[in-house]
Amino acid sequence: MKDLLALRPGFVDGHLLLAQIYVEQGERPQAETVLRQAQQAESLSPRDRARLAAALQKLNDSQSSKDNHSDKQKEEGWKHLIVLWGMGAL
Fold first, then answer.
1. Which of 32, 62, 72, 80 is 20 to 30 Å from 41 by CA-CA measure?
2. Residue 18 and residue 47 in contact, taking contact as beta carbons nearer than 8 Å
């Protein structure tokens, strides 16, 4: 697919699909790279530029959400340990 996209840099659907595949494989940085490279194509319509920008925003929002969720899990874990320690269970 990368070869096809190199030949047709304005094929936004292909870039979006490849980025989605990378996300599903847990390769978020590669997904972001694909979307940013796609934005460099000169022949993009305003609609396609907006689609790529929205996909990048969604990717960044999902990462922020994961980071926040992970922080909340850590905080809850610490609270649980503190409660156990206070009860003399540790």
1. 62
2. no
Q: Enumerate residues 6+ apart whose C-beta is below 8 A from 41.
A: 9, 10
- CB count in 10 Å sphere of residue 39: 16
Per the structure, the count of domains in the chain is: 1
Along the 90 residues of the chain, how does pLDDT read in single tens digits? 888 888 888 899 999 999 999 999 999 999 999 999 999 999 899 999 999 999 999 998 887 766 555 666 766 776 666 666 666 654
Residue carrying the six token digits 């590669």 = 30
The boundaries of the domain holding residue 36 are 2-86
Distance CA 3, CA 8 (A): 9
